[in-house]
Amino acid sequence: MAIHDAGKADELAIGERKLLKLNGEKILLFRLESGYHAVQANCTHLMMPLKKGKLLDGKTLQCPIHRAEFDVASGEVIKWANFPPGIQALNIVRKEKCLKTYAVSVEDGQLSVEV
Fold first, then answer.
1. pTM, 2 dp
2. Which domains does the chain have, with CATH numbers?
3. Chain segment 58-84, per-residue pLDDT in tens
4. Rounded to whole angstroms, what are the CA distances from 18 to 43, 55, 115?
5. What stretch of H or E contains 31?
6. Which residue of 15, 65, 86, 106 lies most exposed, with the fewest beta carbons within 10 A?
7. Which residues of 60-99 are buried (b: 16+ CB within 10 A; e: fewer)?
8. Is the pLDDT at 89 greater than 80, yes or no?
């Protein structure tokens, strides 16, 4: 694993995110009430981009395509894909899978992500 510069800590307001490409991986970096968190940038359901997903309740990321929901801090699945009606049939073969998370650190106002 390697540590990568992710910009200045004050670039993001609480509730904001930015897309990073570090070590060949697309990563979403979030600033939440609980701090900075980084997760893979694609949904584990069908690998659709999460960049434009809704941030529900300040900590849950909802996929904009099939509405799977993930805890941004832990990557845990809160609710699996459930839209449009009928998508549940695909869920028989696409089992729930957490988002990959990355450690974020802040030192002297600088963000770093471990990839």
1. 0.91
2. 3-114 (2.102.10.10)
3. 999 999 999 999 999 999 999 998 888
4. 16, 13, 16
5. strand 25-32
6. 86
7. bbbbebbbbbbbbbebebeebbeeeeebeeeeeeeeeeeb
8. no
